[in-house]
Amino acid sequence: MISTRYVIKRLVLLIPVLFGVATLVFSILHLSPGNPATVIATQQADAAEIQRIEERLGLDDPIWVQYVRFMVEVVQFDLGESWVHNKGEPVTDILRWKFPITLQLAVLGQIAGIVFGIPIGIISAVKQDTITDHISRIGALTGISVPIFWSGPLIILLFAVHLDWFPTNGLLSNGPLPKITGVLLIDSIIKGDIVMFVDAAWHLFLPSMVIGIYSMALISRMMRSSMLEVVRQDYIRTARAKGQGEKITLLKHGLRNALIPVVTVIGIQFGSLLGGAVLTETVFNIRGIGMLLVDAITDGDYPVVQGIVLLFAVVFTMVNLFVDLTYTYLDPRIEQ
Amino acid sequence: MAPDTGLAAPVRRLATAAAAGVAVGLVAVGGLTLDGTLRGATETTFAFGALALGVGLLGWSGSVMAGRGIENMQRYMDTGSDWTESDSRRAMTRIIGFGVGVMFAASLATALL
């Protein structure tokens, strides 16, 4: 069983992690060139106008005052207001509606990666050095090597432009996005709108696949090597010697032990899925948190950038905590 | 000499690194002021100190969270690396102290000058 002490220890360690991330984001934004006040001001603005903006945003305060103010606000879950996008809107409100879009994309990509990656890895290990194994290994290597900014346009060209099977961009064919939970597929179910659900799934299929390709390739490679190691263990030989069927031996005794490193990989690369969502959203013109991040960096919208990076850090650390708990469940010795 | 136990050793390590950070921070503020404004110099120095603090904090918590796992993995893989969780924590404590020192020096320069 997973002890409460272990979970509390991991949750307490989130504090220095988030403090460190917040400090890093603050320092990087202040080291980057350019003055946000000049970006916010119109092109005709004079020095007095820029100074007024600096005073209003507190940018004229000494940097340590800005740092302390930022940290105090972060602790109170106050990420400030956007300076450029939806000017004056609280960053938490912006993230509230943008993040579910990106999370939905990343989770669908992860599901695609797990659903296809694990069976491919198992089949590849069981049929080691056969043509099936070679094909899946080449596929995995290709999936890992091809970057999203290249695979995305190629997939759009093939499936959306030439074959016309899927839409090229957006999340719905027409109409505004419903604002219930922010997760389009769930919202359409809550509204009982089957047409919207199918339309959303149709729009989300290609971007999820683009994100999922890398995940699938990595998981299948890891699953293959982990399974190959496990099937050589004594307890597998013993299970076979006792006359247990091959499928039960592999799936009951082999899979659980082989899954431990795979679960670790799944957790670690969820962060890269969120990062991948930034590129995928740009390629597929999906107005999620990824596109917002790109725009906010370009426009020098510090509060939005800080909010997004902090949110990514929280999600990443929480996913890793969940992964740790999962493999503590799979192998209780890890807790020790 | 017996090794230090308890909080004394980490605190001393932190204080030594912070003192070094203050010295480096003041030199950096001085040097950067020659090339530009005092405000720009203190901002850049403070931001570099914060960078060190952020890296140190992430490294420290990473070492505490995953250090023993990494040690076990290295032992299992027989990599022959001398990396240990406690060494990493010590190094990160120094980086944290240094970062705090630099940030303090920049703040001090802002307040005094």
From TrEMBL, chain A:
Which UniProt keywords are given for this protein, alphabetically ordered?
A: Cell membrane, Membrane, Transmembrane, Transmembrane helix, Transport
- Residue ranges of the TM segments: 12-31, 105-126, 138-163, 200-219, 258-284, 304-323
Report membrane topology: Multi-pass membrane protein
Task: Report one GO cellular component.
Answer: plasma membrane
Q: Name all ABC transmembrane type-1 domain ranges.
A: 99-327
Look up the record and give one Gene Ontology term from the biological process aspect.
transmembrane transport
The record's subcellular location field reads: Cell membrane
What is any Pfam family matched here?
A: BPD_transp_1_N
Family, per entry: Belongs to the binding-protein-dependent transport system permease family.
Please identify the protein, giving its name as recorded.
Answer: Peptide/nickel transport system permease protein
Recorded source organism is Haloarchaeobius iranensis
TrEMBL record, chain B:
Is Transmembrane helix a UniProt keyword of this protein? yes
Q: Name one Pfam family in it.
A: DUF7268
Q: Which residues cross the membrane?
A: 14-34, 46-70, 91-112
Q: Which UniProt keywords apply?
A: Membrane, Transmembrane, Transmembrane helix
* Protein's UniProt name: Uncharacterized protein
Instruction: Give the organism the record lists.
Output: Haloarchaeobius iranensis
